[in-house]
TrEMBL record:
Pfam family, one: Nitroreductase
Recorded name of the encoding gene: bluB
Listed SUPFAM superfamilies: FMN-dependent nitroreductase-like (SSF55469)
InterPro entries: BluB, Nitroreductase, Nitroreductase-like, Nitroreductase/BluB
Signal peptide (UniProt feature, chain positions): none
Organism: Gordonia tangerina
GO molecular function, one term: 5,6-dimethylbenzimidazole synthase activity
Keywords: Flavoprotein, FMN, Oxidoreductase
Protein name: 5,6-dimethylbenzimidazole synthase
């Protein structure tokens, strides 16, 4: 699979995890791909916390379900109806969680490239996540980014120190299939913008 095919096939997986746990060789290959990402000042400000303990997965899943329900209750009736069938997590089904974190102080006080734009450090972590995602797709694996959680709950659950920011919980595991159409499009939540609307030439106009 070349990189363009991986980009086209990549999906935010929820319901398609097979229930099998990823084998160690593939786990380390996708983590190596993530760790090979470019980073501002070559700081590599990320860490990857691999969670496969079923009790921890279950506790986090219960927390996420509560956060999902809070969001559903906040929606107007029409959006709540659209949101209803959308699955927002596959934590226990994936069998593996990869919590990606960010250390802003990694690299010391003088980080080349962060002097005027501090957020390039956190953006570097995003590049690592994208590398992991594309490598997982090429390996026949699925990834789901869970964002329905309270950071302090997750920090306490897995012991992330205050000096470190939690960026993402990624569900990672073998899948039965990858959907041809992303879930949020299939369920009518939102369609993609055409590329032509996003491209500007010689200025933002």
């Amino acid at each position: 699979m070349d990189v363009y095919e991986a980009i086209a096939r990549r999906r935010d997986v929820r319901s398609e995890f097979s229930g099998a746990v990823i084998d160690e060789p593939r786990l380390w290959r996708v983590l190596a791909a993530a760790h090979a990402a470019p980073s501002v000042g070559n700081t590599q400000p990320w860490d990857f916390v691999v969670i496969q303990d079923r009790a921890v997965l279950s506790r986090f899943s219960e927390h996420v379900a509560g956060c999902r329900e809070d969001f559903a209750q906040s929606l107007p009736a029409d959006r709540a109806a659209t949101f209803g069938p959308i699955v927002v997590e596959g934590i226990e089904q994936a069998g593996t969680g990869v919590v990606v974190t960010y250390r802003s102080d990694r690299g010391g006080q003088h980080v080349l490239g962060r002097h005027t734009i501090d957020e390039t450090g956190r953006l570097s972590v995003g590049l690592a996540i994208q590398n992991l995602w594309l490598a997982a797709t090429a390996e026949g694996l699925g990834v789901g980014w869970v964002s329905f959680y309270q950071e302090n709950f997750l920090r306490d659950l897995i012991g992330v120190p205050e000096s470190t920011d939690v960026v993402a919980w990624l569900c990672l595991g073998p899948v039965t299939q990858l959907q041809t159409v992303p879930d949020l499009e299939r369920f009518g939540w939102r369609t993609r913008r055409p590329l032509a609307e996003a491209v500007h030439r010689e200025g933002f106009r």
